[in-house]
């Protein structure tokens, strides 16, 4: 949620578009942010997915080879029992799969564009049979938190907000080096 709020603060047009959609959704659902109401805000899902693309929780996936495998088109052989690591951060910021990967662009995850993302290039919750069991709960909690904040506050960068996010190199997870300092002002209704 911190990274999403950072990107919304740095991209006020995206923040305002989200706020408008959330307010319209609240009006349609008698002022209640129900599960169904939250699921109907597609732009929020796009923002959350784009945030996870730029800032996956884990920088890599690790798997153990269950059988010897030759990488097609190479002489590389992975023996059974070898640990294999895949860089999620590297793939999800590769311009071959995500043009202008440093740019925050929720439209990458619109219904029209999502199908253009090659399989296994967006794996913020893992992939395959070992995909995170908490994926749906994680999305729900994150989207609910962002929705409540954006409905009630405008998020702005402050003097100490970094122009470019840098990561803490001493952390197992992808965490910001200097935190995510932001300024919040209440939305007047």
Offer a few descriptive terms.
189 residues; alpha+beta; two-stranded antiparallel ribbon; 6 strands; globular; iron ion binding; monooxygenase; Cyt_P450_E_grp-I; microsome
What topology emerges from the helices and strands here?
Elements: H1 2-10, H2 12-28, H3 35-39, H4 42-54, E1 60-64, E2 69-70, E3 77-78, E4 83-87, H5 88-92, H6 111-114, H7 135-152, E5 153-157, E6 182-186
Antiparallel strand pairs: 1-4, 2-3, 5-6
Subcellular location: Endoplasmic reticulum membrane; Microsome membrane
Keywords: Endoplasmic reticulum, Heme, Iron, Membrane, Metal-binding, Microsome, Monooxygenase, Oxidoreductase
Organism: Gryllus longicercus
Describe this structure in words.
By secondary structure, this protein is α+β, with helices and mostly antiparallel strands. The chain has seven helices and six strands, in the order ααααββββαααββ. β2 and β3 (77-78) form a beta hairpin.
- Physical arrangement of strands within the biggest beta sheet: 1-4
Low-confidence stretches: none
Number of strands: 6
What's the N-to-C terminus distance? 24 Å
* Coarse shape: globular
Percent range of helical residues:
25-40%
Beta content: 5-15%
Taken in chain order, the helices and strands follow as: HHHHEEEEHHHEE
Q: Radius of gyration over alpha carbons?
A: 19 Å
Oligomerization state of this entry? Answer: single chain
Number of distinct helices? 7
Kindly state the mean pLDDT as a whole number?
Answer: 90
Structural class: alpha+beta
Largest sheet: 2 strands, antiparallel
Overview in brief:
One of its GO terms (molecular function) is oxidoreductase activity, acting on paired donors, with incorporation or reduction of molecular oxygen. By secondary structure, the chain is an alpha+beta fold.
